[in-house]
Amino acid sequence: VQEEKIFAGKVLRLHVCTMEGAEWLEEVPEDTTVEKLKERCLKHCVPGSLEDPKTVTHHKLIHATSEKVLTDTKTVLEENIQDRDVLLLIKKRAPPPLPKMADVSAEEKRKQEQKAPDKEAILKATANLPSRNADRTVAHHNMRDFQTELRKILVSLIEVAQKLLALNPDAVELFKKANAMLDEDEEDRVDEIALRQLTEMGFPESRAVKALRLNHMSVTQAMEWLIEHADDPTVDAPLPGQTPPEATAEAAASSAEVAAGPSSEAGGEEAKDELTEIFKKIRRKREFRPDPRAVIALMEMGFDEKEVVDALRVNNNQQNAACEWLLGDRKPSPEDLDKGIDTNSPLFQAILENPVVQLGLTNPKTLLAFEDMLENPLNSTQWMNDPETGPVMLQISRIFQTLNRT
Questions:
Q1: ω before 332 within 30° of 0 (cis)?
Q2: How many CB atoms lie within 10 A of CB 358?
Q3: pLDDT 10s digits, 232-291
Q4: Which of 161, 184, 310, 321 could make an SS bond with 334 (beta carbons 3.0 to 4.6 A apart)?
Q5: One fold for both 11-91 and 292-336?
Q6: Can you give the residue ranges of every domain in the chain?
Q7: pLDDT, tens only, 165-185
């Protein structure tokens, strides 16, 4: 008996298949290498194929169950192949042929043709064109001028609308209703449930109101703010840009006294005075309210409170834009926001001559829309989509764009 047969490992019966449909059993010891097993399989299914040494490397064995490609240098035991396992003998795919030099050159040429020109190529191609110094800052200022001019138009149209509405006998009642609607402004309200939760925790009501307004009515964030500022000596100071409750009460009392004062002799004058007082109340309620968080953040940079409030008013409560305004030329100025357009200018005359605008100016809702857009320009989209005020705003925009291009 030969020695290698005495000490031979366990013999495994393996079921081998090919892509062409051939099937057979191979009996090999478990210490046989995958490469040797592959040679035996090739002898069985492709007679004479081993004359070419590349034939073995161009084939691979795959374990059917695990879909694993077997490594040539490992043994059947190391690959954890069991008796009765199924193996697949597959020819490897030939690698794609290397591109010819002519093809490579053509591809590189195509890429170069599609490549965007560099600065030198642009200057060379445009050398004969007349030079025009286009300043990007001018376009930026033109956009600013557009916003400023539109605001001036609204200021002047408000004055015209007030004069027209004063002639309407029902104007007083209409604006009383509008005034009542403004009293229900959501921005002045405080979430009563959130306020009660904080006061039940032991926080003073005035301090809890301030914390809620600073943290957009979030109870959790307001509570964290109250705990963090418990020892702050300025914790009970009113928010920047907001009137203390006492001053608000005094203003309301004084306006009530004016409204209840002696009436004029004529009924028309009395109605006109009452309407004027209502206009003043509406304007007071539409006064700009700066974002407290933005005020605090900008004041921490070293800016004065009044400057910060002015910057936020000019830039519609946008903190980043307000910071750029404070660091830049500070145009437009806060005073520019209250100036109207030249009433003799062709632009304003064209707006007043438009029939849609004329009809809209007799509608109290249009006046309220103009007032709202002055202090809250971001609400312009809402009024543009309104069936009553939208056509008026559209005509104003068209007239402005038409005359601005001429």
A1: yes
A2: 15
A3: 887 787 766 555 544 444 444 444 443 344 444 445 555 555 655 666 555 555 566 788
A4: 310
A5: no
A6: 11-91, 144-184+340-405, 185-229, 292-336
A7: 777 766 666 666 655 555 544
